[in-house]
């Protein structure tokens, strides 16, 4: 069953008419609003912070920071001064110069944001690492990137084996009573003494900005390098897709350790001069709703795994809070199941707008817009200025409704610049016809909407039929007992592969043979006989990345007794 399309939202949107804009837009238009368009002087941090600090937005709140212990806010003017100070600390203590890698390994805090911006002002390349990484994962990334300076906290310092990292010259520790020595400096103390004036390093559009190691859902993390030119698309999508208005209070729930937490947790909102709420600490349904109410959040960007957890917490919790400030809700990172969209309409009276993109693409590419009808389960349509298609393995475009490789025509502004130390890997992303091949499998319908089917490697061939795991998982989620589902293909001598589902049950449901049969029948009747899982296994939890994505390769490895590969990004 496909859900009814959800109607466009009436009102003033930055993207007024998708089809018209798609026909007429080209990227040279988008450059004109940047200060470097006339001055020729480019730097992401200048554009995101200083430009506003020197305008009538100077006293507008740029950053609201909130966790269990801290409740702070900083204006654009203050952000300029504090990031200048951080830049000066990095320059004087860390000897940081243009092109050096500065890594940041700590939980969200205002200091994290001052540091990222300060490093960028020096023309350094920032490498954000998620706080939960253990020693092996930290070492791999610092060694691969040859990081020169690391900013971390006392709690995480034990996971940094400085003696094994010959390129690491300086560690700045953010905490209290830090004992300084040749290697270690006290960040806060140095900040106090640092000047709030800094000469920003002007860069070329293709100079390095940020180095993101990908989530690791499929294999060993790779260092994806992005450059300053990406700001063009960060800005433009923040306008069209996040639909920012002057008075918005925006909350992106992603950690800067993942690309969403930088492209849309730092760059998108601040390039557009938007007030940005950052919430530290762990996920908890009540406190999340509390944040929306307290800050009057208007635009909210999160992920399917979070929405599924909120859904699992029940609708009663939602009713305790006033969420009427919410205007626009978006999702990224994993397929957004129609069931979740339906729930969003029920409890928030809001359509959740799915957006598709990858670490490698740097910014959103296929999205749902307020001015466009949403088909629940579809990722939407390519942003103006971007050509997307479904191609076969030779790069030939396939007609509508045929499953194939989701590919993007080369040439969008936020495209990765390289894979660090791995040119070969970089080249492997491309196919004849100038196609960037995503590794995702999808189809496009007659109206140009794209439908995610699964990772190419996860698509299941059963009795001659190609089945995308996403469709099966979404159907499973509609069953009232199912909280989460991960579906894989398991080799079978007769059918090629059979479908096996791993399921975590909702509270109050117990595994049983009857339930297995009931769920099988549910998929058979609701989707197709050949799509019904032949095997179902219940698990307490499914293996996930720390960004919340189900790791199907781990399910498969467990099932087939294969090596699980790199697990550095897996949740405990
Ligand atoms: P790795 O590349 O290291 O295996 P990863 O692919 O999970 O990890 P990311 O770059 O964070 O790393 O995620 C991009 C992938 O996430 C996409 O290729 C796609 O499979 C999935 N994804 C992102 N957004 C969506 C979406 N809206 N719908 C479906 N899938 C999505
Ligand atoms: Mg990937």
Automatic annotation (TrEMBL):
Q: What is its EC number?
A: 6.2.1.1
AMP-dependent synthetase/ligase domain span: 51-416
Whether Membrane counts among this entry's keywords is: no
What range(s) does the AMP-binding enzyme C-terminal domain occupy?
A: 471-549
Q: Which UniProt keywords apply?
A: Acetylation, ATP-binding, Ligase, Nucleotide-binding
What Gene3D superfamilies does the database record attribute to this sequence? Answer: 3.30.300.30, N-terminal domain of ligase-like
Q: Which SUPFAM superfamilies match?
A: Acetyl-CoA synthetase-like (SSF56801)
A Gene Ontology biological process in which this protein takes part is: acetyl-CoA biosynthetic process
Single GO term (MF): acetate-CoA ligase activity
Q: Which domain of life is it from?
A: Bacteria
Report the InterPro entries cross-referenced here: AMP-bd_C (IPR025110), AMP-bd_C_sf (IPR045851), AMP-binding_CS (IPR020845), AMP-dep_synth/lig_dom (IPR000873), ANL_N_sf (IPR042099)
Give Gene Ontology CC terms. cytosol
* Annotated family: Belongs to the ATP-dependent AMP-binding enzyme family.
Name the record gives this protein: acetate--CoA ligase
Q: Which organism is it from?
A: Cytobacillus horneckiae
């Amino acid at each position: 069953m496909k859900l009814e399309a959800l109607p466009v939202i009436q009102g003033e949107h930055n993207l007024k008419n998708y089809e018209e804009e798609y026909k007429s837009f080209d990227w040279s238009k988008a450059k004109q609003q940047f200060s470097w368009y006339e001055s020729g002087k480019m730097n992401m941090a200048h554009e995101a912070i200083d430009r506003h600090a020197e305008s009538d937005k100077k006293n507008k709140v740029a950053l609201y920071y909130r966790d269990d212990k801290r409740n702070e806010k900083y204006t654009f003017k203050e952000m300029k001064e504090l990031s200048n100070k951080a830049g000066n600390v990095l320059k004087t203590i860390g000897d940081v110069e243009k092109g050096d890698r500065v890594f940041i390994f700590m939980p969200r805090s205002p200091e994290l944001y001052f540091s990222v911006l300060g490093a960028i002002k020096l023309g350094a390349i920032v490498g954000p690492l998620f706080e939960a990484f253990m020693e092996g994962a930290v070492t791999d990334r610092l060694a691969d990137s040859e990081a020169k300076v690391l900013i971390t906290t006392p709690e995480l310092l034990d996971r940094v084996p400085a003696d094994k990292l010959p390129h690491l010259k300086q560690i700045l520790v953010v905490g209290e009573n830090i004992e300084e020595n040749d290697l270690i400096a006290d960040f806060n103390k140095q900040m106090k003494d640092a000047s709030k004036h800094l000469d920003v390093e002007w860069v070329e559009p293709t100079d390095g900005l940020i180095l993101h190691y990908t989530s690791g859902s499929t294999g060993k993390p790779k260092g994806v390098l992005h450059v300053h030119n990406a700001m063009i698309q960060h800005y433009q999508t923040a306008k069209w897709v996040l639909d920012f208005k002057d008075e918005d209070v925006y909350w992106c729930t992603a950690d800067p350790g993942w690309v969403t937490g930088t492209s849309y947790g730092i760059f998108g909102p601040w390039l557009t001069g938007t007030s940005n709420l950052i919430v530290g600490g762990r996920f908890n349904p009540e406190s999340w709703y509390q944040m929306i109410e307290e800050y009057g959040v208007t635009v909210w960007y999160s992920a399917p795994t979070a929405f599924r957890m909120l859904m699992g917490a029940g609708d009663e919790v939602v009713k305790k809070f006033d969420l009427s400030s919410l205007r626009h809700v978006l999702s990224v990172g994993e397929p957004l199941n129609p069931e979740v969209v339906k729930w969003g309409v029920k409890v928030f009276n809001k359509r959740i707008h799915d957006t598709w993109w990858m670490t490698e693409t740097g910014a959103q590419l296929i999205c749902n817009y307020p001015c466009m009808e949403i088909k629940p389960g579809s990722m939407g349509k390519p942003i103006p200025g971007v050509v997307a298609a479904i191609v076969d393995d030779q790069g030939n475009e396939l007609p509508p409704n045929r499953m194939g490789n989701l590919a993007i025509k080369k040439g969008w502004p936020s495209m990765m610049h390289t894979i660090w130390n791995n040119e070969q890997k970089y080249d492997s992303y491309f196919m004849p016809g100038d196609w960037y091949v995503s590794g995702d499998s999808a189809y496009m319908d007659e109206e140009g909407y794209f439908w995610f089917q699964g990772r190419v490697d996860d698509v299941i061939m059963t009795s001659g039929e190609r089945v995308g795991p996403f469709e099966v998982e979404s159907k499973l989620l509609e069953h009232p007992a199912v909280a989460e589902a991960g579906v894989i293909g398991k080799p079978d001598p007769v059918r090629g592969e059979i479908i096996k589902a791993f399921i975590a049950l909702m509270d109050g449901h117990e595994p049983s043979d009857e339930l297995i049969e009931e769920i099988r029948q549910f998929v058979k009747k609701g989707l197709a006989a050949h799509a019904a899982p032949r095997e179902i296994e219940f698990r307490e939890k499914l293996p996930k990345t720390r960004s919340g994505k189900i790791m199907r390769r781990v399910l498969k490895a467990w099932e087939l007794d294969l090596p699980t590969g790199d697990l550095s990004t897996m949740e405990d």
